[in-house]
Each structure stands twice: as structure tokens, then as C-alpha cells.
Write a structure and sequence with these properties.
Strand content: 25-35%
Largest sheet: 4 strands, mixed
Radius of gyration: 16 Å
Helix content: 25-40%
CATH topology: Alpha-Beta Plaits
Order of helices and strands: EEHEHEEHEH
Structural class: alpha+beta
Shape: elongated
Number of helices: 4
Number of domains: 1
Length: 129
């Protein structure tokens, strides 16, 4: 399967942006929204062997990008507000940082994370970072 990329027509030629670059921008965008975590599907054996769903899936057609995100929302945050915040930030960042036109930003809330699990996730991130 060919690598997805966005293509921009510029005055001096074309600019191609690989989907990995766009996905990195989206991942950083998620950090700006309070109450959201990337949905980590599968654990144990599934995680070890690379199974499960990706958190960010992008589809580029010319200079237009559609994004599909799978997130988890921390318990106590309004799911609809967090989702709308994710949509807005992802759209703005892709347009401003990559110069691409954003078609749709679809958000799938895969789970709600209770406070005790959030503390475990925070400790894991600190020990790996």
C-alpha cells in the first residue's frame, strides 16, 4: 500500500507532506486539550505484538486531509466538550502548521478513564520520559 501524503501546490513547485508528519502534529494537538488521552487499545499480548487500533488515522486527498481520532476521556470531563475541543485544535494545528485544508475531524471516544487509572498512566509516563 502506498504511503499517504498531502500534496500542496506552491508558487515554486509542489510540497509533499507524509502522513507520519501530520500524525505527529495531531498527537501534539491532543496534548493541548484538557481531559483527553490517546485511546490505547489492547494490552498485554496484543500490545506486545503491535495489535490494536491506531489512535490517529489520516486520509489525504490532494491538499485536503480527513482525520479520524480514537481518544479516551478522563472521568469528570464532559465528553462532548472534550471531543469538540479536540476537533477544533486538530483542525487549527493542521491548517496552521502544515498548511493543509482539513475536511473532517471525526472523534471516536473509546473509553472513559477513572481517576485511579489516570494516576497509573501519569506514573508510567514519568518513568518512561
Amino acid at each position: 500500500m502506498a504511503e499517504q501524503q498531502a500534496q500542496l501546490e506552491l508558487g515554486l513547485g509542489r510540497l509533499y507532506i507524509q502522513s507520519d508528519v501530520l500524525a505527529s502534529i495531531v498527537a501534539k494537538s491532543l496534548e493541548k486539550v484538557e481531559g483527553v488521552r490517546p485511546a490505547r487499545s489492547g494490552g498485554g499480548v496484543i500490545a506486545i505484538f503491535g495489535g490494536g487500533e491506531e489512535t490517529v488515522h489520516l486520509q489525504a486527498q490532494g491538499d485536503t486531509v480527513n482525520a479520524e481520532l480514537r481518544i479516551a476521556v478522563l472521568l469528570g470531563y464532559p465528553v462532548h466538550e472534550v471531543s469538540q475541543g479536540v476537533q477544533q485544535v486538530v483542525r487549527e494545528d493542521l491548517e496552521q502548521l502544515a498548511g493543509v485544508r482539513v475536511g473532517q475531524v471525526n472523534v471516536f471516544v473509546k473509553r472513559v478513564i477513572p481517576p485511579e487509572e489516570e494516576l497509573v498512566l501519569d506514573e508510567e509516563e514519568e518513568s518512561h520520559g
